[in-house]
Amino acid sequence: MDFAGISKTPIQKLSESLNKNKFFIKRDDLFPVSLGGNKARKAVLFFDEVENGQFDCVVTYGSSSSNHCRVVANIARSKGIPCHIISPDETIKTTFNSQIVELLGAVTTKCPVAEVASTIEQKLKELKAQGYKPYFIQGGGHGNIGTQAYVKAYEEIVSYEKETGIHFDYIFHTSGTGTTQAGLVCGQLIHHDVRNIVGISIARKTPYGSDVVRESVKSYLDSIGLANTDHKPIHFVDDYVLDGYGTYNDSVLQTIESVFQYDGIPFDTTYTGKAFWGMKEYIKKNRIANKNILFIHTGGIPLFFDDLRKREKNE
Ligand SMILES: *Cc1c(COP(=O)(O)O)cnc(C)c1O
Predict the structure, then answer these.
(1) pLDDT confidence band for 165 (50 / 70 / 90)
(2) CA 177 / ligand 1 centre spacing (Å)
């Protein structure tokens, strides 16, 4: 894989209409590496580090439905370096992502969720003992490098605005580990822009979820010499997490169907479909009207197919 020619992901208008707002979507699901998504955008930067540091294998972790693991396994494979994935027993099921990871020849080590950290330690030790120089990537591509990926995405948004004269009053996106949100918030700070960035949490509640975003912002700003710079308050909305990670309701399913029918864009029930539904609820609740609204599609295309398979089996 060669990342040199990768340019901006597209921004397009949606047919969605709610309170006379105009809706746009940034298609990071079309980021052109291993079925795209925010994990691909982040992983490309992690692999720059792998290459620069002459590391010769990678270790990461995630569940069987992890988009992050799919992308890391794919890039590692393309570079001909071994990829080790630590995966908690509790989440083991066959998904399109887990099948792709297997196809790519990544080595998965399963362990109880409480032992993930120690299993990672053990794996790194083993690899070093075998003479490897392993590179460790946080689950979900969390950390300053992941944040950097969304500072870059923010810059793409600003450049779209300059080209078209359209200003986005709001940027909504799915918030999981908070790295995507941290990157957007840092991007906004660097550009001194005024707008609302709203992360719709799909699992974490406040204050933990928002604290992690805040820490990620601080850590990134420290790393670029902007320590102690004030940023806008973090809008981390936890009203739509339902019963936590992976849970959804009929309205989420209807939202996914409707966006696919009218715009041909695939969402899933864990991340983007749930967050897009949450965004619409938030817009209604806060009576947001006549604004330009950008939603970032953070990917997860294989999960769209997992959801189809679930429907077929009536799960
Ligand atoms: C991981 C993931 C997210 C969450 O991104 P964070 O940077 O962890 O907040 C959102 N959408 C999809 C499809 C993901 O795979």
Answers:
(1) very high
(2) 7
- Residue 207 Cα to ligand 1 middle (Å): 19
Q: What φ, ψ does residue 103 adopt, rounded to 5°? A: -55, -35
Residue with structure tokens 């799909």? 202
**Ligand 1 contacts CB of residue 141 (under 6 A):** no
Evaluate if residue 5 carries a pLDDT over 90. Answer: no
Of 236, 243, 295, 239, residue with least CA distance to 269: 243
Average pLDDT, the chain: 96
Phi, psi for 287 (deg, rounded to 5): 50, 50
- Tell me: the pLDDT tens digits for 215-234? 999 999 999 999 877 777 89
**pLDDT band, residue 269 (cuts 50/70/90):** very high
Predicted TM-score (pTM) of the model is 0.97
Which of 190-211 are b and which e, b meaning 16 or more Cβ less than 10 Å from the residue's Cβ? beebebbbbbbbbbbeeeebbe
Q: Which ligand 1 atom is at minimum distance from the Cα of 303?
A: 13
Q: For 86-96, what is the mean pLDDT?
A: 88
